[in-house]
Design brief:
Strand content: 15-25%
Distance between the termini: 55 Å
Number of strands: 33
Shape: globular
Largest sheet: 7 strands, mixed
Helix content: 25-40%
Bound molecules: zinc ion
Amino acid sequence: MADLPSYISAEIESKWQKRWEADGLYHADIDAARTKHYALTMLPYPSGDLHIGHWYAMTPSDARARFMRMRGFNVMFPIGFDSFGLPAENAAIKNQVHPKKWTYANIERMRLQLRSMGAMWDWRREAISSDPEYYRWSQWFFTQLRQHGLAYRKMSPVDWCPNCNTTLAREQVWGEDRHCERCGTPVIKKDLEQWFFRTTQYAEELLDFSHMDWPERVQLLQTNWIGKSEGAEVHFMVDNESLSVLESRLTVFTTRPDTLWGATFMVLAPEHPLVEKIVSSQQKAVVDAYVQQATRQTDIQREAADKEKTGVFSGAYAINPVNDERIPIWIADYVLMTYGTGAIMAVPAHDQRDFEFARKYGLEVRVVVQPSDKPPLYGATMVESVPANGTMVNSGPLTGTPGDRAFDVSIDYVEERQLGKRTINYRLRDWLISRQRYWGAPIPIVYCPEHGAVDVPDEQLPVLLPDDVEWLPTGQSPLKLHPSWKNTTCPVCGKPAERETDTMDTFMCSSWYHLRYLSPHYASGPFDPEQYAYWMPVDTYTGGIEHATMHLIYTRFFHKAFHDIGVVQGPEPMSQLRNQGIVLAEDSEKMSKSRGNVVSPDDLVSRYGADTVRAYLMFFARWDMGGPWNSSGIEGPARWVRRAWNLFTEPATRGRPSAEVLRTLRRKVHQTLKNITRDFEQFEFNTVVSSLMELWNEMSKARDLGAGGTAEWDEAVDIYLRMMAPVTPHIAEELWAYLGKPYSVHNQSWPQVDEAAVTEEQVILVVQVNGKVRDRITVPAEITEDAAKEAALASPAVQKFLGDKPPRKVIVVPGKLVNIVG
Ligand SMILES: [Zn+2]
Ligand SMILES: [Zn+2]
């Protein structure tokens, strides 16, 4: 026997990668005759090392895109780099290299790593967000937003990361302790004049998920993030004659207007501007001291649920507008300026924080809602607050209003008397996009002493980011320290003016990269309209769920805003979204360099080959779940790949297989095909790989039984390689070529399931008892002898003749009859 070719992954993989590239096999061009499929995977930061998480996100996405291609879709699967931003800049600072040099060297390296995946990227469409030809359009989009009233500049207290030396958007402040999403440092507040996008204007539209197939979980995260609450704004008045009517108005937002009669005091945040105006002379010293210590605490310290409530009386009173009661105004740090108006009406009977505060300081607790399932409540004896669900009591003219109508009736009451109005509040805030860092797209604004903030005219874009900058962080924008760049002339009057020295949040760049892929070098607009018309919207978007409340909200806002401006069409940018889980380290912890538990895909590829790494990443866990890495687990897929190699390279000598062997083989092949087709449709990659492994077993058996070389065998091999192609594209291509089939397996269509072959064939067995026909039973044709016996004995007709006695003997003639001797 001739020597079999041995499986050397490195040779095969680099050979085919070069060939595919040279042939432009994965180039996606407009083809009106075919249905397009835009498969998008989230683009990486050029951090310098593609990690296993990238592979986990991208290679199953690639397999899915390949599957769609084989199903006849014209598939575009692009890649690029989100190359502006803090990670690049921080690393550059650490290594003392220019961020640009560092970034582009990393891009160079990551391109090679990305190529090693054997993914079907269309590299002609590569887009790099730090290229001037890209950020020219990021700047253009900024100008458009500003010209349409959706970008504005405002002085406000903003979240500042003292480690990253920059402001952050609300979405980039994470967790209860309010830490920086990038570096984990707790953020502090700073008053700064900053640029914002009006995301809040789209809050209601962003809550509409009806035009998309996105995971429930992401919809829920976004819904909670947007945080819509319905209620009323009610105006209380400070009882202080030295204040004007407007000054004395204290507006509170409440989601429970039906508890207005239960407000027995008000609380202002220590930072509330009214505090110093209303404080009485007797209380001034106490209040000043309290305000001092409160501002030294972080929001999280102040808001902690288990923290003992503290506060001081201001000496002032407010008038409750619904009953004209005079109630005390307290200053307490459990109320924050960042939520609502910085002032609350305290309803201690029905709010636990207010309750604790009232008990501590001896303030009245008044029940205004009586739950039907509870004995009558008395404020004086309650030990905790009671949720406000029930009939209104102690509520003046509204007493007796049933719980289901209390909300609306109360708001009507307030509105009729002009004490306030129905309001919808959102937790969502406008998107703060100014960053006091160097490595980003300059904000295209010039400040003129006479004309104020002036847009840089479109024809002067891009505003180039200068290379010669002191980019080490000083706490202010590095571009501020570059006089020749900063100083310019006003586009309106031509007199000396200064450039905006902040750069844009990089989430701005990634909000529209899916559009730049359409035509990355197009110079007459952000994208070529012809490409847009054919490819958009994105059909399948894949990536991490951690972007649910950042990128995935920003990009939807961006699309909706530019839909209204008239730049893009359709309700949503991405029709379908699927999220992968996280690959944890073997110790079930997050992979991190400091823990030393990082799995390097490069090492795995050189040891096992990209095909095996791809197969393992699809196989080891449910894709949407992820799980801990298991270094010995990869041996399974490695064995499978080698065995597949051996099975298809060994010459197939024909034996004398029975018809049953061939029928079984066909059935298994088509059953597997049917399952794998469904699994690919549903992004269930782990069962794709396990089904291929099982089918290998069945095919090996059939071959041992002489099936090799038959038409059924050839069909099985052909279908097997096509099914392998999306998972392990290199070895599938190599085997396809080895068997003399026309290049390329990746241009083949996905096989059709033969439903007739899938269904198990049925036969009728004659059942005799002591030689006489007593029944006829229908069974699968390939039924085993034991199963046939069992089925015959289970027949009621047979049992009638046999009675309780076990049969003396049972004879089976396969496919024909069962004879029972009683
Ligand atoms: Zn930070
Ligand atoms: Zn001017």
